């Protein structure tokens, strides 16, 4: 069974930092491309960052590029999202995400709230 467990969210002031973690199990993590997706209140899901298997390729949406950094530790089956220079507009529930044979998988999410 695929399981994705996010952690690390919280309440921070504008300009602050957080590091999110996603512990994965139930699939071949090292062979899988992983992503982070967020959903703000009243909005649809927004893809913000991805990392290819092997970690050599990372991708970012323009809204977070230069502020967020995705990484992975295949020995720990964990993907991370370092978030710096946080803004109120980053307030959302953040989800770890992947697709396996076209089927999407999400974790339960972790809430990030940025106060102005």
In short:
The protein is mostly beta strands and 116 residues long. The chain is built from no helices and 11 strands. 31% of the residues are buried.
Topology of this structure?
Elements: E1 3-7, E2 10-13, E3 18-25, E4 34-39, E5 45-51, E6 58-60, E7 68-73, E8 78-83, E9 92-100, E10 103-106, E11 110-115
Parallel strand pairs: 2-11
Antiparallel strand pairs: 1-3, 3-8, 4-5, 4-9, 5-6, 7-8, 9-10, 9-11
Textual characterization of the structure:
0% of the residues lie in helices and 55% in strands. It has 116 residues and is mostly beta strands. The strands form two sheets. Strands 2, 4, 5, 6, 9, 10 and 11 form a seven-stranded mixed beta sheet that branches. Strands 1-3-8-7 form a four-stranded antiparallel beta sheet, with no helix packed on it. The chain is globular and about 40 Å long. The N and C termini lie far apart (40 Å). The model has no long low-confidence stretch (mean pLDDT 97).
